Structures are given as structure tokens and as C-alpha cells.
Amino acid sequence: PHISAQELHSKLAQGEPLVILDSRPMNEFQRMSIPGGIDCPGAELVYRVQELAPDASTPVVVNCAGRTRSIIGAQSLRNAGLPNPVVALKDGTMGWALAGLELAHGQTEHAPEPSEQGLAIALERAEQVARRCGVGWLDPAGLSTWQEEAGQHSLYLLDVRTPAEYEAGHLPGSRNAPGGQLVQATDEYIATRNARVVLIDDTYVRALMTASWLLQMGWTEVRVLRSDGFSGMNLVSGSHQPAVLGLRSQPTLTATQLHACLADETAVVLDFSTSLVYRQGHIPGAWWALRGRLQPVVEQLQALPVTPSRLICTADQDALAHLAASDLGELCPRSMNLTIAVLAGGNAAWREAGYDFSQDDEQFTSEPNEVWYKPYEHRGAVEQAMRDYLTWEVNLVEQIERDGDARFNPLV
């Protein structure tokens, strides 16, 4: 069941009691949200809803930017047996904007941690969903066996808790994949079809709910790790640091040193972040470049009216800047006599040093078409882009039925 933007707006205007839960990550919630909404990403819904809607008569509205995560989120609460009336906001924040209603921006309100009683209720609800879906468990001994067999059968250890919880302490070898995002963008976390997937969560609620959806989506080798709240387990802290093959560190300079270089016309800064990140803000004077299209970059450098003597590479990911600098060192003819370096710490270091970013002097070395722009990230015809996207989403059902090869196992 769903509610339209106009219907929800009317209920809010009349002061009707209800709870609006935004099932997206905090960074998306901060960008735009429904007024009065509370951030509660997908897998956190069953885990935290008891604290927000303890009165069973209070309606719960789940939204996202469009349709997918609101539908999955609302159905998660319904599958879990939440006694409250639960609906999804039709077309999410895009539908709200298309209805001519004002969105909120920069909000930070998030769902609280569950109380002891709330956790007990959430676990009971998640366990009954898991039983209905046939979610399996894996003990530490079984995990060790699967890890030994990882050379023959791909294995993913995915910690479905929040990024903050993951960074505070997680099992070695695991990656953070917040449950709602794992269900919505599975291909960003699991690259191998029919892989073994172990979901990790010290309270089990989020892992069980996430597993229920993965099984319905056709992932059969999914297990929840019996971690006993990580009791007796050796944990590591910090974010995931992937091994980057072929990475050779290049000479670096600090943000302060780069700032001093900007007055020099012979110094050129190349930003290898995505074009979307570049457009949101870049080091003044920096050119946008793509590592996969470096030959045009070299040709444009050679055609500049002032011959560059120094090339500084930066990005929102430090490793990417080093890889690009290494490639440029091999591509640029020796006759250019270029000194190539990398901004240590990338764009984050520039920001931390207190220097400004620019949006007014965009310079592209090639067409910025390397990433998909969300409808609201377009610079023109945003409303039409939203309508096109929502139409495409609705038509996916017909496409899936026509293809007939989906391996879904929906809970009935």
C-alpha cells in the first residue's frame, strides 16, 4: 500500500499523528528529505521502529528518493508483523517535488538506538521472518571452513550494520554493506553469481532481515553468522582498506604546497574524481580528467598556450590519483619535461587545510559521461528526468515478466 505526496501533505497539515521514516543513508537524507522525516536506513527499520512508533495506532510512512527502498522498507515492516498501519510514499522525494511541495534540506535527525525491550521485540519479529524465508545460520567453525574453501567458491563477509558501528569494531576480512543498500544495490557488494554470502550483525536483527530479502532475490548461499554479540572475537577498527593491484606511490606535495603553486601558470591540476564530484566542487583551476581517457589529456596539455612544467594529480580517492599519475608518467613524452606529483590526501586534504573549492571554472578534458546522474543531479530539465526515471522503474515489472528468467522467490 502507498500514500501520495498530496495525501501525506494534507495529513501533516492537519496535524495527524504519523511517523515518516526515510530509508536512505544519511548523506542522501541530508541532501533532501520530507519535512518531519527521520532517517532510518532500510535494514534499520525493523531494528529501530519500536522506539519511534510504540503506539500501534500510529501510521508509519516509509520513503526514499523514488520507489525501490520505500517499497522494500515498508514491506519489511509488514513482513515483520508491525501492528501499525504501514505505507510507502509513492515516488518518494521525487514525487513530493513533482507535486510542487517543498523538500527539507540539511536535516540530521536519525532513529535512536533500540532499548533493551525494543531490541527484544525487533529480534522476535526478525526471527519469524527468517523462519518463513528459510534463513540459515553459520557458526564460527563453519565460517572457518568456508574461508578455507574461498579459493574454490567465492565468499563475501558483509557487515550489515551502520558505517559507524563497523568502523568501531568489525571482524577482520569483512566489508561494510549496510543492509538496506546491500538489498538495493547488490551488484556494488557482490560481484560473483552464486557466491557464498555471510551476513554479520552483533544483534542479528539487521542480518536476518537482509538475508530474507537476498533469499527472495535468488541468492541461495546466504547465511547469518552466529557471533554471540562478538563475544570472544578479535575485532579490528577503522574503514575497509582494499588492496589496489599495480599501485606505485608517486611523489607528493601537501595542500599548502599546492596552494602556493596555483599562482604559477605552468602548474596544471588534474582532478580524477567522478565528474559529478568534480561539479560539486573542485580545486580552483583544476581540470577534470578520466583515467581511462588519458591520451586526449596529454594532447591538450601539449596544446596549451603556456607549456606546463608541473602536473599535480588529485581525486576523492587517493589511490586513483597515484594510479593516474603513474599512467601519465608513461604516456607523456620526455620532451614535455613534466614533473608529475600527487596531492597527498587528495581533495579531502585540501578541504581539511581550509582552502576553498570552486564550481565556477569547470574545465573538462573529455565529455563527462562516465557515471550515471540521478534525476535530481541533472542541471537542466530535472522534473522531466524525474518523470522519465519513475516511468522506467514502473516498467521494469513488465520487462521482468517478459524476460521470464528472474529467479525471485517472493515471500507469500
Explain how this protein is built.
There is one protein chain. The chain is an alpha/beta fold and 412 residues long. The protein folds into 4 domains: 2-113, 3-Layer(aba) Sandwich (Oxidized Rhodanese, domain 1); 126-230, Oxidized Rhodanese, domain 1; 252-352, Oxidized Rhodanese, domain 1 (3-Layer(aba) Sandwich), CATH 3.40.250; 374-407, no CATH class. The protein is built from 16 helices and 15 strands. It has helices spanning 5-13, 26-31, 44-52, 68-79, 92-98, 116-133, 140-148, 163-168, 179-184, 205-216, 255-261, 275-280, 294-303, 318-331, 346-352, 382-403, and strands spanning 2-3, 19-22, 38-39, 60-63, 86-89, 136-138, 155-159, 175-176, 196-200, 222-225, 252-253, 267-271, 287-288, 310-314, 339-343. Helix 3 (44-52) packs antiparallel against helix 6 and helix 6 (116-133) runs parallel beside helix 10. The radius of gyration is 24 Å and the shape is globular. The model has no long low-confidence stretch (mean pLDDT 96).
Strands of the largest sheet, in order across it? 1-5-4-2-3
> Superfamily at the CATH H level of the largest domain?
Rhodanese-like domain
**From the alpha-carbon coordinates, what is the Rg to the nearest angstrom?**
24 Å
Shape: globular
The percent range for helix content is 25-40%
Query: What is the mean predicted local confidence, pLDDT?
Result: 96
Question: How many alpha or pi helices?
Answer: 16
Compute the separation of the termini in Å. 16 Å
Number of strands: 15
What is the makeup of the main sheet? Answer: 5 strands, parallel
Main structural class: alpha/beta
Q: What is the total number of structural domains? A: 4
Known CATH architecture of the largest domain: 3-Layer(aba) Sandwich
CATH C-level name of the largest domain: Alpha Beta
What percent of residues are in strands? 5-15%
Q: Which residues sit in consecutive blocks of at least 5 with pLDDT less than 50? A: none
Find the CATH topology of the largest domain.
Oxidized Rhodanese, domain 1
